[in-house]
Amino acid sequence: MSRTAVIAGVGPGLGASIAERFAEEGCSVALLARSEAYLDGLATRLDEQTAGKALAVPTDLAEPTDIEAAFAETREAFGDVDVLVNHASAASWDGLLEQSTDDFRRAMAVGPEAAFRCSQEAVSDMLDGDGGTVIFTGATTSVRGRAGSVGFSAAKFACRGLAQSMAQELGSEGVHVAHVVLDGVIRPPEGVEDDAESYLDPDAIAERYWTLVEQSTDTMDFEVHLTNGNGTVEFL
């Protein structure tokens, strides 16, 4: 059965890998991010090379009206939303005294606030239909704060709390909410010359995301911890 998937926060790394993996399964994929030129190119490639369909939806995820318009455009093109991936973040690698108020607010707006608004839009469709899946992209900082990263750590903690609350509320309604802790550095799109095994493979991560979409509602994973063996996460 074809699904409509929204990927909120698509760039040339993991976001593109997730979109491509879902499109390979025949999904109609809406690509949300600010870079119109990049999204147009990715959408064209997915349309030409996969079994699915793709729609470029230029969106500033820090703007509630942009999010509302993006979901309206997605529904008009593909119908109700079955899958949402809350993948966006705004990293500001500053410590407490260096962190500006504007950068901190941007991290919260693009992270947990955007995830909240996207989830409201998507879950309203899922509850009116046959359920669905919401996946949050987390990080090591989702469970353990990082020095010199006040805004990013706070935003990722908030996203995890949002995901936990949603999972408790929506699991019995047939909506699978999952939070994926990416404990490591994702291999960049341009590749690496040395120590390639120390990076997380974005295509392998995307494959794991797809298994969450396919998972039976009888046994739904909530938190999935992905690492290459070098992780140092301490679960609290």
Fill in the keyword field for this structure.
about 20% strand; single chain; about 45% helix; seven-stranded parallel sheet; alpha/beta; about 240 residues; two-stranded parallel ribbon
Helix fraction bin? 40-55%
> In oligomeric terms, what are we looking at?
single chain
**Hey, roughly how much beta strand do the residues contain?**
15-25%
Q: How large, in whole angstroms, is the Cα Rg?
A: 17 Å
SS element count, helices: 6
- Structural class designation: alpha/beta
Shape: globular
Strands, count: 9
Strand-and-helix sequence, N→C? EHEHEHEHEHEEEHE
Question: Order of strands across the biggest sheet?
Answer: 3-2-1-4-5-6-9
Low-pLDDT stretches are: 231-236
Largest sheet: 7 strands, parallel
Mean pLDDT: 92
Spell out the blueprint of helices and strands.
Elements: E1 4-8, H1 14-24, E2 28-33, H2 36-49, E3 53-58, H3 64-78, E4 83-86, H4 101-128, E5 132-139, H5 150-170, E6 175-183, E7 185-186, E8 199-200, H6 202-214, E9 223-227
Parallel strand pairs: 1-2, 1-4, 2-3, 4-5, 5-6, 6-9, 7-8
Helix pairs in contact: 1-2, 1-6, 3-4, 4-5
Quick recap:
With 236 residues, this protein is α/β, with parallel strands linked by helices.
Structure description:
A seven-stranded parallel beta sheet has the order 3-2-1-4-5-6-9, sandwiched between helices. Strands 7-8 form a two-stranded parallel ribbon. Helices cover 43% and strands 20% of the residues. The chain is globular, with a radius of gyration of 17 Å. The N and C termini lie far apart (39 Å). It has six helices and nine strands. The chain is α/β, with parallel strands linked by helices and 236 residues long.
